[in-house]
């Protein structure tokens, strides 16, 4: 499904959603943050165009917008540092390198997250592949053992009327987001408050799989792959703002900033971050956690927990992507131990996480091949 979310009661209405966009990282070269130092060079994108619809075909009724930018943020007030400091390997101790990296992370400017249209399209298609195997019919689905529909390329969840679950619906927020971008919704969805899921059970949903309403919904989602990708990118941009709001100043906060910076620089397309946040959330909601029976502590499974698990300082892109995948794998296997009923999802989850190890353009990053390549996966102790 498209992430794990804060619980609320669905009474037939949706709500507007979109946090102010913040990315705490620089988009420096992939050689940045070398073994013993981190560069301070970042660049703020100067493009002033509006967000557009990169990606797959858009709804024909959607006004045409500039395709060069995605989800523009307000200009940041702090300019990027101009100097990148690098030192030969072995000149500084590991501890000194870590301290230097932390100091530089504090001084990083806040850039805008901008992707060219072709790359945004690839990210959307990859996430669609992760969620549905790329099957057109699976763009509208209701999974077994779940109490809500999963729709679109990110399997955004949609509750029936009166249903309460420990998640926040993402499908109504998606529709509100698209409406603000002047995408015309199907008439039965285009209400002041986004309506609740009209199908009250999986059986009813499947029974009406070929109804006119369902066919219209399916075509609408197929026509708005680009807009759905933008929605996921908006959430990724706001993730660090949410995480840092729940993390007081101190070593843990510095650690999160440093590790997030490393992942951004190691993945030019931001795919691991965009996908994981859509998949399992930011990790800031205390309700999205499970009790560890041995320690008596509640443990989450979002991006925050993954970043806290990371401990490296290298800037080598391949090594950073592998470390992020290893940390995500550990966190999800920890969830399975704390919630044994989730074991049925474990193989699929690990298959998805394995795709983070390679650039999305690499054929080996497909879920099936990536899983075979990464069965050096260790079971979390």
What does this structure look like?
The protein has helices at residues 94-106, 117-132, 171-180, 202-207, 212-223, 225-245, 251-266, 271-280, 303-309, 317-338, 346-354, 367-373; strands at 8-9, 140-141, 149-151, 156-158, 164-165, 289-291, 298-300. The protein has 381 residues and is mainly α. It has a domain at 247-373. The chain has a three-stranded antiparallel β-sheet with strand order 2-3-4. A hairpin with a 6-residue loop joins strand 6 (289-291) and strand 7 (298-300).
Uncertain residue ranges: 2-92, 363-381
User: Per DSSP, what share of the residues sits in E-state strands of 2 or more residues?
Assistant: under 5%
What's the overall average pLDDT, rounded? Answer: 73
Please describe the biggest sheet, giving its number of strands, its sense, and whether it closes into a barrel. 3 strands, antiparallel
- Shape verdict: globular
Indicate the radius of gyration in whole angstroms.
Answer: 21 Å
Number of helices: 12
Report, as a whole number of angstroms, the end-to-end distance: 26 Å
- Give the total of beta strands: 7
SSE succession: EHHEEEEHHHHHHEEHHHH
Strand order of the largest sheet: 2-3-4
Structural class: mainly alpha
Relative helix content: 25-40%
């Amino acid at each position: 499904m498209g992430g794990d979310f804060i619980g609320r009661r669905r009474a037939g209405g949706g709500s507007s959603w979109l946090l102010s966009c913040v990315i705490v990282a620089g988009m420096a070269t992939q050689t940045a943050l070398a073994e013993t130092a981190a560069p301070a060079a970042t660049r703020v994108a100067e493009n002033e165009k509006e967000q557009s619809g990169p990606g797959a075909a858009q709804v024909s009724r959607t006004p045409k917008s500039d395709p060069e930018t995605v989800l523009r943020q307000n200009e940041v007030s702090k300019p990027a540092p101009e100097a990148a400091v690098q030192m030969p390997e072995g000149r500084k101790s590991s501890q000194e390198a870590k301290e230097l990296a932390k100091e530089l992370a504090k001084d990083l400017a806040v850039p805008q997250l901008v992707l060219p249209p072709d790359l945004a399209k690839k990210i959307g298609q990859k996430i669609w592949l992760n969620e549905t195997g790329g099957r057109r019919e699976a763009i509208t689905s209701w999974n077994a053992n779940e109490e809500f529909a999963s729709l679109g390329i990110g399997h955004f969840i949609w509750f029936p009327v009166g249903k309460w679950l420990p998640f926040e619906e993402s499908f109504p927020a998606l529709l509100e987001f698209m409406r603000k971008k002047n995408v015309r919704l199907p008439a039965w969805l285009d209400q002041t408050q986004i309506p609740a899921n009209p199908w009250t059970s999986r059986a009813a949903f499947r029974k009406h799989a070929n109804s006119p309403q369902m066919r219209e919904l399916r075509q609408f989602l197929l026509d708005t792959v680009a807009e759905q990708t933008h929605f996921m990118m908006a959430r990724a941009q706001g993730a660090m703002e949410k995480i840092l709001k729940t993390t007081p100043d101190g070593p843990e906060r510095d650690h999160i900033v440093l590790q997030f910076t490393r992942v951004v620089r190691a993945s030019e397309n931001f795919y691991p971050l965009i996908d994981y946040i859509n998949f399992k959330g930011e990790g800031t909601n205390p309700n999205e956690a499970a009790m560890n029976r041995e320690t008596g502590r509640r443990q989450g499974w979002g991006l925050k927990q993954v970043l806290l698990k990371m401990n490296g300082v290298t800037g080598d892109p391949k090594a950073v992507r592998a470390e992020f995948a290893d940390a995500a794998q550990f966190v999800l296997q920890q969830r399975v131990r704390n919630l044994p009923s989730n074991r049925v999802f474990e193989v699929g989850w690990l298959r998805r996480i394995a795709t983070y190890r390679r650039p999305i353009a690499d054929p080996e990053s497909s879920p099936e091949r990536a899983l075979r390549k990464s069965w050096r996966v260790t079971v979390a102790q």
